Amino acid sequence: MKIIRVHHGPDGQTHFEDIDWTETPTPSGAYVRTDTRQAGITMFAIQPPGFFADWHPAPSRRLVTMVSGTAEVSVSDGETRTINAGDVVLFEDIDGPGHTMRVIGEVDRVALHVSLEG
How high does pLDDT run on average in the chain? Predict the structure, then answer.
């Protein structure tokens, strides 16, 4: 499963990285799943079109799954990516300059946040 990782690098900048989470067939072989991970709190964040969150680090390691809407996320190395419904982002930029996020388009951004332990 492909996801986007946002992390603070040794150069002091925040970066994007495309990563694969390993998928393993279920015992029946009917489908695949990823390894389990310990999770803490969950929440939905709902922001209207035009909402902008200026530079901030993630408050915890977290998986964010975009349920609806579209957002532009920028990292401090200058790269910007468009995050669409169905995309999963692993935010690990809990220190350093962090990232920005702007809701674009005509639809509210609804995102499921799952804080990861460890």
Answer: 96
- CATH architecture of the domain with range 2-116: Sandwich (2.60)
How far is it, in rounded angstroms, from Cα 20 to Cα 5?
Answer: 10
Closest among 102, 32, 34 to 69, alpha carbons compared: 102
Closest CA to 51 of 118, 105, 10: 105
Are 95 and 10 a contacting pair, CB within 8 Å? Answer: no
When pLDDT is cut at 50, 70 and 90, the band that residue 118 belongs to is low
The residue extents of the domains of the chain are: 2-116
What confidence tens digit (pLDDT) does each residue in 70-91 have?
999 999 999 999 999 999 999 9
